[in-house]
Request: fold
Amino acid sequence: MAQAAACSPRPSYERHEPNKSLLFQTIQNNLKSFLSHCDAEGHPVPHFIKKEFEAYLRCGVLAYGFARVYCQECQYDRLVPFSCKKCGFCSSCMARRMSETAVRLVDSVIPEIPTRQWVLSVPPPLRYLIAYDNQALNELIKIFIATIFSYLRRKANKPGCQLYPGAVTFIQRFGSALNLNLHLHSQISDGVYEKRPGGLLKFHRVAAPSLAETKQITQKIANRVHCYLQKRMHDLELDGLDAKEPFLAKCYAASIRYLSALGANAGKQLLRIISDSPSKDDDRFERTVAGFNLHTSVAIEGHDRKALERILRYMGRPPLSQDRLKQAPDGQRLILTLKTPWRDGTSKIILSSFELLERLVAIIPPPRKNQIRYHGCFGHNAKIRKLISPQEKDRHIAVGHSSKRIARPAFAQLMARIFEIDVLVCPRCQSKLQIISFITEPEPIRDILRALKMSTAPPDIPKSVYSIEYEQQADLFIEV
Reply:
């Protein structure tokens, strides 16, 4: 057995090729006609949405440039394409950002204390508002975190003491059906730090919240959000987004309600596949108050850093796994498999190519809006953060004068940590690979690719037939 294990092949690095995925091909074949149709209907697509799609079609394509990695021992040559670095729906770039963020939080931000994941879902009308109104989103996060922190301090039962909880909040814009479902994932300290005389800190863990306590917290959040909306009502237009960006307003509203947004099927329900295995009953509806739902069952012990890293990666995951998107038998539509069946038995959603693009539009975050927030003792400017965060002096670099900043982990470090693959090891002779150049000019790109007998042209983006995309659909439900 030991000999067999020793002879088993080691995992190796394979180049990212998004142009072979169904998602890439669908966007590639339909983007031009989708943009043309939106312009024809008088609803031009916002510039930041166009940039997201265009960058995705350039991601991982060697014809747009690459880094050249070379082995001096055996002359092995590897080309590593550039990535788009977007945060909307690109699985590759978002997976790297997810892993990088999780590593940084575990190694340099969250101390070895027990933490708990708190997930807040909000009613559909509020999802629509906070999807575009950053002020309302900030207020929701403020109310959510303040209510949880107040609960932790009260349950610690240390009157008159300085108590410091901490939290990291991820803003997720998507649901399992690629619908616009903006909700909050927070990894919060499962207790509080007490600051004692002399600057000493002691952590006090609190008991897990009961169902009654969870409902009480949810009720407080719902009441405070309702009060905030009442105060803003005289300044808040009925639909400010519809006047500024009618295209986004249509996509947002349709995505939340599982409808088609544009074309002949605008306002109609998406096709669904109903299976015989509905989701198992849980206490979700018992925890729901006025449309707000709070989930608190996942706790991580302080010493279990791998579990903490896994859950942080889950909180920052991409919206779509390529394995869940398949081509329908008719060759025209797409089948999106849900992560878990709904209560009515819905297990899959059937989408046309344009309907898929509409849903991707809805989950793309507005530009220059942070999707990760830090609170309490985990905040960047918290006075006690430097006293509780893990110390990794070798990962600190001087920036400018005397300030310090945590260095981002390199791509090779992430691959080695998560997949146990050393991408800088030559697959032929096991020597160390070196980055020798970054090729960005069109002529050298073509010369190198031609010498390696690889395609020198970027992927073609043909114009699809509009009538295929928005043909009338007879049935709303398909039972299997």
